[in-house]
């Protein structure tokens, strides 16, 4: 068997028997062993293989009557070759070809590097000196169309990839050379000029955008324009989560934290600690994030006249009063601000990040920055809710806001019961999945469940079968990941809350969090001791 091969399902192979088969009165059976075809080099003999697969009766009918080839597995080169041969340039792509193209572009990093894909595309781009036939301009245009779709899908995800930049320049020069021989390439030439223009622009300017501006922020490494959640610890187990750029100075972060904990900025200082015990006091103009991102280090806020950190939140009366004020804010405004912030995070997650997260868990941080922010936010919101409740130590105020089960109106009990049913995890979260499916976009999925689905597909299916890429597995993963696209078909409106709720916005963006379960447990017992 040659090294370059493609395994596909050919519905035409049984065409001779299909008429007689369809004339039978018996229902169509299901096949546990459908046939697949190996395609090797052009003159090599066909070989056959079978694979166990369960199908429903409808699936069998669709498979037998379909006029398309379904890619099952193959080498990267052969899959790419098959994909290019199926592309239609003048007409709109049929759904199957469009899906195959999208599957390939979303998942190619699983079985080949970006440099490998660039080299493979250059090999597929016919050389002017080597080939002279009518098919050459069509093949060139197909390669250019695929590259255009690739850069459109990934946007700025790849603009810092040196291999891709060199590839785009090389293929652009090729098009410049070819356009005189093949004027039909003029349209593709203009398209590439736009692509190179965007690439150069994105590389040369300082990216002054934030998560709220709906830009996809993807980098191989953390750069100074990206936004992250920086944890500034007040005590050993409580911190302020500050959303800030990597380029933010220590003084800017200190100003946010000081306002948050209602302390005078001039009385405070930021100190980085490593677990080995090393301490470094940050100067006002020093970059705080570069220090905090070092392995095994944390940022603490200290009183300049004390050697210990500030007192815990629970013992700070001013912070307790602020928590009470938060509990009194209109619930609609609170929900709106939480949704606005979460949408800005979700809208910045690229579909590729889920694949990187699943396939490279050890090194996923380099390519999953936005996804990591969203997951971190999910965890912090849960802890923030508990923190806010437990910091309100005055029982009368807690009862006024939370009441007791006996005094809760029936409509709220019903609402809570519906929420319990919706979050019921039985039958693989069927209630939630059904409700979410009926919702119109824009909508934010429960990301841990989506990651669970992708992981289930990954761990339940081999990536390679007989040294061939298991493309069926990659199609299932791509199909799951594409759900992000459907959730963002319509953009969430920027509803700006009243000016008097700017304090709420600041509070939502920079949460007070106690992340130690034992500390939360002790606070709970201090407020309501066990009988």
UniProtKB/TrEMBL annotation:
<dbReference type="GO" id="GO:0005886">
    <property type="term" value="C:plasma membrane"/>
</dbReference>
<dbReference type="GO" id="GO:0007265">
    <property type="term" value="P:Ras protein signal transduction"/>
</dbReference>
<dbReference type="InterPro" id="IPR019804">
    <property type="entry name" value="Ras_G-nucl-exch_fac_CS"/>
</dbReference>
<protein>
    <submittedName>
        <fullName>Rap guanine nucleotide exchange factor 5</fullName>
    </submittedName>
</protein>
<keyword id="KW-0344">Guanine-nucleotide releasing factor</keyword>
<dbReference type="Pfam" id="PF00617">
    <property type="entry name" value="RasGEF"/>
</dbReference>
<dbReference type="InterPro" id="IPR029071">
    <property type="entry name" value="Ubiquitin-like_domsf"/>
</dbReference>
<dbReference type="InterPro" id="IPR001895">
    <property type="entry name" value="RASGEF_cat_dom"/>
</dbReference>
<dbReference type="GO" id="GO:0016604">
    <property type="term" value="C:nuclear body"/>
</dbReference>
<feature type="domain" description="Ras-GEF">
    <location>
        <begin position="330"/>
        <end position="530"/>
    </location>
</feature>
<dbReference type="InterPro" id="IPR000651">
    <property type="entry name" value="Ras-like_Gua-exchang_fac_N"/>
</dbReference>
<dbReference type="InterPro" id="IPR023578">
    <property type="entry name" value="Ras_GEF_dom_sf"/>
</dbReference>
<dbReference type="Pfam" id="PF00618">
    <property type="entry name" value="RasGEF_N"/>
</dbReference>
<dbReference type="InterPro" id="IPR008937">
    <property type="entry name" value="Ras-like_GEF"/>
</dbReference>
<feature type="domain" description="N-terminal Ras-GEF">
    <location>
        <begin position="67"/>
        <end position="197"/>
    </location>
</feature>
<dbReference type="InterPro" id="IPR036964">
    <property type="entry name" value="RASGEF_cat_dom_sf"/>
</dbReference>
<dbReference type="GO" id="GO:0005085">
    <property type="term" value="F:guanyl-nucleotide exchange factor activity"/>
</dbReference>
